[in-house]
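Dock FE2/S2 (inorganic) cluster; give full complex structure.
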Amino acid sequence: MNLTLKIWRQKDSNDTGKMVSYNVTDISDHMSFLEMLDVLNEQLVNSGDAPVAFDHDCREGICGMCSLQINGEAHGPDRGVTTCQLHMRMFKDGDTITIEPFRAKAFPVIKDLVVDRSAFDRIQQAGGYISVNTSGNTQDANSIPIPKADADEAMDAATCIGCGACVATCKNASAMLFVGAKVSQYALLPQGRVEAKERVMNMVNQMDKEGFGNCTNTGACEVECPKGISLTTIARMNREYLSASVTKD
Ligand code: SF4
Ligand code: FES
C-alpha cells in the first residue's frame, strides 16, 4: 500500500504545533499500525529529519502506553483493540490517514503524538489500591470466599489498561469510565470494602482537580474503549460516591 499520512508535529509543550503530510510506500497489510510508523520514522531518520514521537511499550494491548487519534477515532477504526493491535489491513491503498495525539486539557501534549497522562497516575495514587498485610502473615487468598459473578465483574473492571481513550473520545474529556473501572474493581470485592468510602471520595476529588469534565451519558467512551469497560462501572462509582457522601463522618 502507498499512503499519505497527515501527522501532528509539535516540538514541545510550548510549540503551537501543526499537521504535516508524509508519504509512505510499500506498506504491507500484515503490518501493525505502529510498524507502519516505524517505517516512516526510519525514512525520516535516513533523510536527516526528526522522527515522529509516539508512545508505545508492550505492543500487545496490555500496558496502555499507545494512544493516537486515528482518523478522528481513539485507537483507530477497529473495535476492542489498542493502537498497537491495529493492523494495516483496516486501510487500503491510496488512503490518507490523519494521526493526532489524544486531546484533552488534562492530557497536555509533550511532543508530537505523546501526551502527559500522569493525571491518571495521580488519580490511582489517591485511592486505587488496598492495604494488605505483607509482614509474612499474609492471609490465604482462598480464605475469603467470593461469589463467582462478583469476581468476574471485578475482573472485567480490572482489565482497564489506563490508556485514556475514553477521555480522548468524550466530548467533555471526562475520565469517569477510567475512574469507574478502578473504583468498581475494588468495590465488588470484600478486600476493597475496607477503604471503599475514602477511596471513591479521594479518587473522584482528584479527578475533578485534574480538570477532567463531567459525564453526560453519551456513551462514546464505552464504544471506543479497547477493553470493553462498561458504562455500568460509572453507575457503580456514582452509587459509591453518593453512599460515601451521606455516610461520611
Ligand atoms: S476505561 Fe477503557 S478507554 Fe478508558 S482508560 Fe480504561 S481501558 Fe482505556
Ligand atoms: S503498546 Fe502496550 S497497549 Fe499498546
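Observed: The chain is about 35% helix and 10% strand.
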